[in-house]
């Protein structure tokens, strides 16, 4: 069984405050991208994991392994699965690569093991693994609240090209959130206006309303990200923003070929550059309902 594990960007992320459990209360609009890892699942007596395409440990601490283990424990399923990840989404990038893999394992094994869990039950389990796993199970365009795990699907946006650029360093999400708490005057992008333009499928409104409370923190840690944003803005992008806790910066373009052209312009040795697009592009099914290929 092949399951596509799609990356995401945050079109808007507002941090509302801290919570008793140490996490931060969020309101964020997430968007699935075409860029994906492949997750290959085969029946096996026990759970095993292999990773290709990234320098990532394949032990029991890997989120994909933990997803399989959690699903087995919670349902009492007695068999296992050989899980293979073919990574294309960079690590520690703000693109939810690990969460996408975990979501793909949950929805693929739910089918392969004939468990019959619904998306709400999978989403509940996913939230134990990470704040973005629930969104990755839903996919498409969604408002995510709570820690990020309370997902309200939104209507699909029109097609758009996306350029992703990640310098060759990662950031720790936990560190970025901790530093956010020390900001004297944090930014609060306007989620209500973003929701209005998304519901109207108004892409020119969406690119005007892009915003991310965490950008202030990661840009202060890595000032070169502002230069990168400026550079992307000169390639025909209609909007530019950092995704999640970063450090990936994205540009949005009128169409996918424009993002491909921009990728050619900004390509350099010392960065990862990828042209992609909003997903779905043509009425494909999203998230758990569309991810399983065979
Ligand atoms: O949930 P996830 O494992 O992706 O989160 C990584 C870290 O980011 C958490 O341990 C926490 O420090 C921080 N975080 C947060 N508030 C959120 C999501 C993540 O403080 N809503």
Going by helix content, strand content and strand pairing, the class is alpha+beta
* Low-confidence segments: none
Task: Count the beta strands.
Answer: 11
Mean pLDDT: 96
Number of domains: 2
CATH class of the largest domain: Alpha Beta
Q: Please name the CATH architecture of the largest domain.
A: 2-Layer Sandwich
Biggest sheet details: 7 strands, mixed
The percentage of residues in β strands lies in 25-35%
Question: Any overview of this molecule?
Answer:
The chain folds into two domains: 2-154 and 284-293, Ribosomal Protein S5, domain 2, CATH 3.30.230.10; 161-277, Alpha-Beta Plaits (2-Layer Sandwich), CATH 3.30.70. Helices cover 35% and strands 29% of the residues. The chain contains eleven helices and eleven strands. The strands form two sheets. Strands 1, 2, 3, 4, 5, 6 and 8 form a seven-stranded mixed β-sheet that branches. It has a four-stranded antiparallel β-sheet with strand order 9-10-7-11, covered by helices on one side. Strand 1 and strand 2 (24-44) form a beta hairpin. It is globular and about 55 Å long. The model has no long low-confidence stretch (mean pLDDT 96).
What attributes does this structure have?
294 residues; alpha+beta; 4-stranded antiparallel sheet; Ribosomal Protein S5, domain 2; 7-stranded mixed sheet; binds cytidine-5'-monophosphate; 2 domains; 35% helix; Alpha-Beta Plaits
Task: Describe the secondary-structure layout.
Elements: E1 2-18, E2 24-44, E3 48-52, H1 63-75, E4 80-86, H2 97-112, H3 119-129, H4 133-138, E5 141-146, E6 150-154, E7 161-167, H5 173-180, H6 191-199, H7 203-209, E8 211-212, H8 215-221, H9 224-233, E9 239-242, E10 249-253, H10 256-266, E11 271-277, H11 287-290
Parallel strand pairs: 1-8, 3-4
Antiparallel strand pairs: 1-2, 2-4, 2-5, 5-6, 7-10, 7-11, 9-10
Helix pairs in contact: 1-2, 2-3, 6-7
The site of cytidine-5'-monophosphate (C5P) has 11 residues, from strand 2 and helix 5.
């Amino acid at each position: 069984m092949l399951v596509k594990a799609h990356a995401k960007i945050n079109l808007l992320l507002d941090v509302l405050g801290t919570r008793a459990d140490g996490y931060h209360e969020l309101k964020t609009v997430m968007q699935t991208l075409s860029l994906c890892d492949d997750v290959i699942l085969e029946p096996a007596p026990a759970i095993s994991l292999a990773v290709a395409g990234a320098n990532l440990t394949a032990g029991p601490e890997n989120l994909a392994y933990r997803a399989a283990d959690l699903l087995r424990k919670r349902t009492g399923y007695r068999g296992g699965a050989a899980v293979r990840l073919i990574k294309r989404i960079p690590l520690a990038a703000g693109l939810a690569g690990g969460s996408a893999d975990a979501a793909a394992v949950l929805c693929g094994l739910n089918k392969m093991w004939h468990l019959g869990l619904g998306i709400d039950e999978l989403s509940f389990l996913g939230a134990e693994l990470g704040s973005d796993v629930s969104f990755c199970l839903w996919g498409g365009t969604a408002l995510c609240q709570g820690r990020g795990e309370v997902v309200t699907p939104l209507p699909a946006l029109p097609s758009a090209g996306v350029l992703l650029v990640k310098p060759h360093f990662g950031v720790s999400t936990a560190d970025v959130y901790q530093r956010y708490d020390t900001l004297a005057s944090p930014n609060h992008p306007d989620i209500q206006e973003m929701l209005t333009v998304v519901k109207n499928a108004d892409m020119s409104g969406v690119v005007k309303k892009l915003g991310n409370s965490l950008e202030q923190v990661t840009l202060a840690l890595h000032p070169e990200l502002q230069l990168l944003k400026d550079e992307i803005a000169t390639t025909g992008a209609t909007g530019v923003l950092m995704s999640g806790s970063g450090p990936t910066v994205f540009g949005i373009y009128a169409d996918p070929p424009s993002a491909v052209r921009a990728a050619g312009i900004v390509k350099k040795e010392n960065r990862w550059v990828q042209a992609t697009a909003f997903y779905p592009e043509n009425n494909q099914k999203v998230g758990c309902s569309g991810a399983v290929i065979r």
